[in-house]
Design brief:
With 250 residues, the protein is of the alpha/beta class. It has one domain: Rossmann fold. Helix content is 44%, strand content 18%. The protein binds NADP nicotinamide-adenine-dinucleotide phosphate. NADP nicotinamide-adenine-dinucleotide phosphate (NAP) binds next to helix 1 and helix 6.
């Protein structure tokens, strides 16, 4: 099993849509052989064909799926891992919390990131210039009303990532946390279970970030020389001041 040439290998989880898909394209433009992981392989296969990458099935909540994905990818010699798969389900006060939604958010954002990171760590160290980029959120920086399931999961995912910065000190691995604010992707559609009108309201009256805006920042972090570690990058639309405060035009 080999890559199609000698390009360094970047692994992007959740690469079938939104930030992950844009990141796969961005990194391919920067010379990486990109391995795209997601459940909707019909989407990742199309992108992989466009960018001469590799699409593999991946469900981060399924241990066997992660094992197969990691085994294949580690053998290719991964140098960059972008932990991007994740999302939110629901927007409800703690008093009305839905345990299944909380479990989904925890398993996808937190345990998923743990599994991929643990699985690919040996290959990343072995590369001699490894890099783990984790897409958390402004929800990993502060609470907001009705968002505790998501903010809790994103805080936990961020703690996992930030802890590695100390634990891996002295190893050839960089760690970058990307914390975006409002980005218009399938995120809100997933959060509101396919309700497009509700999803549209999230971005109404303001100019949100695009997936490409975030991907370009990820590409910038990935293209610094090996001794430069961009620790945390928070990016928000100009119209957004915090997780719960945005300016909306009529
Ligand atoms: P998106 O368009 O919904 O993309 C989410 C991606 O995660 C999809 O590719 C999806 O692929 C994948 N995914 C979900 N569950 C998965 C699973 N069990 N196994 C493997 N892949 C899974 O949303 P996005 O905005 O690009 O989200 C990307 C990341 O950015 C997430 O971690 C999200 O929390 C974070 N984020 C988003 C925003 C925002 O405003 N959009 C802001 C801050 C942070 P499949 O469904 O094909 O598996």
């Amino acid at each position: 099993m080999t890559t199609s040439n000698d390009r360094p290998v970047a692994v992007v989880t959740g690469a079938s849509s939104g930030i992950g898909a844009a990141t796969a394209r961005q990194l391919a433009n920067q010379g990486f052989h990109v391995v795209l992981g997601a459940r909707r392989t019909e989407l990742t296969e199309k992108i992989a064909a466009e960018i001469d990458g590799t699409a593999l099935p991946l469900d981060v909540t399924d241990r066997d799926s992660v094992r197969g994905f990691v085994d294949y990818t580690a053998e290719l010699g991964a140098r960059l891992l972008v932990n991007n798969a994740g999302g939110a389900k629901g927007l409800a006060p703690v008093a009305d919390a839905d345990e299944e939604q909380w479990r989904w958010m925890w398993e996808t954002n937190v345990i998923g990131t743990l599994r991929l990171t643990k699985g690919l760590l040996p290959a990343l160290v072995e590369s001699g210039d490894g890099h783990i980029i984790t897409v958390t959120s402004v929800a990993a920086l502060e609470p907001y009303d009705n968002g505790a399931g998501y903010t809790g999961a994103k805080h936990a995912q961020a703690m996992l990532h930030r802890t590695l910065r100390g634990e891996l000190l002295g190893q050839p691995i960089r760690l970058t946390e990307i914390a975006p604010g409002l980005v218009e992707t399938e995120f809100s559609l997933v959060r509101f279970d396919g309700d497009a009108a509700k999803a549209d309201q999230v971005y109404a009256g303001l100019t949100p970030l695009t997936a490409r805006d975030v991907a370009e920042v990820i590409g910038f972090a990935a293209s610094r020389p090996p001794h430069v570690n961009l620790d945390t990058i928070v990016l928000k639309p100009r119209d957004q001041a915090s997780a719960s405060r945005a300016h909306r035009r009529q």
